[in-house]
Task: structure prediction
Amino acid sequence: MPQTASHTAHAKVILFGEHSAVYGGPAIALPLEGLTLTATSRPSAGPITLESAFYSGPIGAMPQSMAAPAVALHKTLEYIGAPFDGLSIRVEGMIPAGRGLGSSAAVAAAISGALAKSYGVALDGDTAFEFVQAAEREAHGNPSGLDARAVITNTPIFFRAGNVDRLPINLDAVFVIGDTGVSAQTRSAVAAVADLLRTEPQRVGAAFALINTHTETAVEDLAAGRAAVLGKRMNSVHEQLRELGVSTSTVDALVEASLTAGAFGAKLTGGGLGGCVLALAPRDRAVGVADALRRNGAVSAWFLDANIDSVSCVCDDHPRHRPEPI
Ligand code: MEV
Result:
């Protein structure tokens, strides 16, 4: 008999390596533990039902837009050997969808984790990853595994080819995240880069090579607290992402606004074609950068302080601009 149980997954932000990670390049991601969503599963009669902002009803009738979490749900129940009835699942949280912050992976992780807990099953890290990754495959075709790893890991990670290492960070600076408010499908952005790779392999190869070098060398900068150097790397990687065609004028405007307000550097984060901008700011400029982002159209801004200690990141949404709930 299943029990009532909840599981929370957090958002993530990619510092370096989006898109190149799809082709085996390294990437660095940070957990946004202040930005979460929670699934709660409760015993209930009849077929399993889901309640969320996007869909409420029996899982057998879920629309195509819910196909990815449905995959995580099915895989988890099969793994547990549990029936497809006797539960209702409610998903709620504050991770905005389609902004490159890992909402699709977090929904899958929260549902899968809640179901497993309802049946008293502990999922090990690789199994939890596998279910989220299966959902990500449904969501955007060819995921690197970066998002699936990042939303179930509570530390900054260095990611390469599916594997993760915990990443020490010792920065006296603050990351500021600005949300363009524009939803974008990672699937389209990944497909656009794949098309460009087919037609202009040299151009794309050169961009990936530069991004990979920045990602690898950033590891030491993060440990040694070289914020200004990291900022330059972020600017350079943003240029390469522009080359790959995944930035937009709205994203570029927020990058520019961050730099004008005194950020060390800024770039798009996640799949692009909308979504969020990540800036790195001196501690005394962080609020100014967030304000500049908002003045230039960001619908939300969050702060991520990576200097609590080497593993813990704190994320606060700004009280004036809370994101819409999922
Ligand atoms: C999306 O958050 C990150 C991408 O690199 C896709 C992936 O790694 O699967 C664009």
About this structure: Residues 308-326 have pLDDT under 50 and may be disordered. The two ends are 29 Å apart (CA to CA). The CA atoms of residues 125 and 151 lie 11 Å apart.
